[in-house]
Amino acid sequence: MSRIDEKFSFLGGRGETALIPFVTAGDPDLGATLRILGALQRSGADLIELGVPFSDPMADGPTIQRASERALRSGTTLPQILEMVRQFRRDSDIPLILFGYYNPFFRYGLKRFAREVEAAGIDGILCVDLPPEESGELKRWTDAHGLDTIFLLAPTSDAQRIRLVTEQGQGFVYYVSVTGVTGARKHFEDHLRAQVDRVRRVTRLPVGVGFGVSTPEQAAWIASFADAVVVGSALVQVIEKAPGWRKKAEGAGAFVARLKRAMKRVSKKAGGDPSTSSGSA
Amino acid sequence: MPALIELEKAYVEARRDPSFRREFHRHLREYAGRQTPLYFAESLTARLRGARIYLKREDLCHTGAHKINNTIGQALLALKMGKRRVIAETGAGQHGVATATVAAKFGMECEIFMGKEDVERQSLNVFRMKLLGAKVRVVESGSQTLKDAMNEALRDWVTYVRHTYYLIGSVAGPHPYPMIVRDFQSVIGQEARRQILAREGRLPDYLIACVGGGSNSMGLFYPFLGDRKVKMVGVEAGGLGLKSGRHAASILAGKVGVLHGSKSYLLQDRLGQIRHTHSIAAGLDYPGVGPELSYLRDQGRIRFASATDREAVEALKRLAEVEGIISALESAHALAEAMRLAPRLAKNRLIIVNLSGRGDKDMNVVAEYLKASDEWQIVNSE
């Protein structure tokens, strides 16, 4: 059982939904990220998704594009990110998911990548531009190193695709709430809940929902039917706006704490209404 | 991914459908103005004192470049799939213009993504697209050129995928695009093959084409792949020289990587970040290259060369002066290689150069280049 599986089974036992904040590693530098990770964990994050910056982040909206640019400008590289993760791991056992684009992983050498990523203490890989059909080479090594490979499903995915992703995926299934790229949104489609249920019927993997979740109200609504809520761009905006390492870490922590509080108020499957989820994008 | 599977299914069906093929060829004939001439460049051949040089005149196509072949094909495909909105990325603006053109003709909504740097250097084409009723979205992220336009188009596509058709202009991007674009562009090589056989009674010794993403080169080369004696040369953008690091020669100077859904040679740093590229020709300013071209290079079937900005401008000038044809800067890279190669070959050898586009769009850039350098004097004093 991976650290990710254990976390989900622990939360599932308590009827709780996991909160997974996303931050770009190295935004604006790795010193800041190390402090932010600590703050996220202390504030109620259950797992953390750590983004590896890429020059051409085509699945990301403007917020995470900017974060990626800031990280690259400060010279952030994959080996440095892994070094930072090793430091963070000394006093944390929160599950960590490395999110990124395939080319930097591929160039690193997939065998070496999987070995070093595992050694640093990462638990899962989410490679956003690598569909399961093409993931054989990567999985060969990530499987060998006990890393979970997480895949995405979208509102356009049909039954056949849902089956493929749930069969190939590990850790959890990442359901993309809307068609499009990452970025805070004001509204969700009403049938998100039905779509998540459709996925849940064919798999025992937990189903997480991400892309566009930006307010405590939205997080709480999604928490009422999903197993995990991923919050990225809205958090990255908080980090972007705050000056200096300390303020960034404090701001990120406070935001995540608000999300978690809102999610805890809703017991799972209690329902909820998307129309009440107003938000500031 | 589901959208790509849907596209592949629709295309495989269309390809088998004789009525689809008939309609495609009818539009190529009546609307694009095909077939294009295979022109014997007599004066140029005489000056170079070597192989006989033929120009495949794609510059005479409607809208001024080969790009229209592919946009007609894909527009028909989009209609067949019931998509009423088309989007496209563009570098030099030729593909954008060709897309806006077919969107106007077939009554589809159209949005073109173009890097800010390209908008500035290809302002004429931006105006043409707007006149054709397309919306031009200026992309200010990254290097503000073709790859960033492609990123933005992909972002739009995944957002509005249900009613939007993404009309990719090069043999790059995810499968099935490289195959679709190659097939629609193959009309170039099919015609050239027939024409050279009719004119010379034999196949050419060399085919030469410029390579950015690679659509005009694949279009010319593909129907000749089985002709083992026909040599093929792809000419990449050498920019300020391969050693300067300021170029767009993905195959000659890149390493294998994965971008925009295909695995191919890519200009990138040691850690897999995509590098900024440079070429005087906006249409070649792309860090990747079609995966099939990479494969054919590895097989040894296609040789790759490069031409610098300066060599391209010189070739453009020279062709204008001796043949009265103003080529696009992109195609001028192929001409530069032909001008290097021809004098070294016997007079009975045959070269076909793909003159993929005309140069009107480049006049500002060429004028400024000549003004800024002492090139003007050098070329004139020859």
Overview of the structural elements:
The complex is a heterodimer of chains A (about 280) and B (about 375). By secondary structure, chain A is α/β, with parallel strands linked by helices. Chain A has 12 helices and 9 strands. Chain B is an alpha/beta fold and about 375 residues long. Chain B has a 6-stranded mixed beta sheet with strand order 1-2-12-7-8-11, with helices on both faces. Chain B has a 4-stranded parallel beta sheet with strand order 5-4-3-6, sandwiched between helices. In chain B, strands 9-10 form a two-stranded antiparallel ribbon. In chain B, β7 (about 205-210), α11 (about 215-220) and β8 form a beta-alpha-beta unit. The mean pLDDT of chain B is about 95. At the A-B interface, α3 and α5 of A face α8 and β9 of B.
Identify the notable features of this structure and list them briefly.
heterodimer, A: 281 residues, alpha/beta, nine-stranded parallel β-sheet, 12 helices, 9 strands, globular, disordered C terminus, B: 382 residues, 17 helices, 18% strand
Summarize the structure.
The complex is a heterodimer of chains A (281) and B (382). Chain A contains 12 helices and 9 strands.
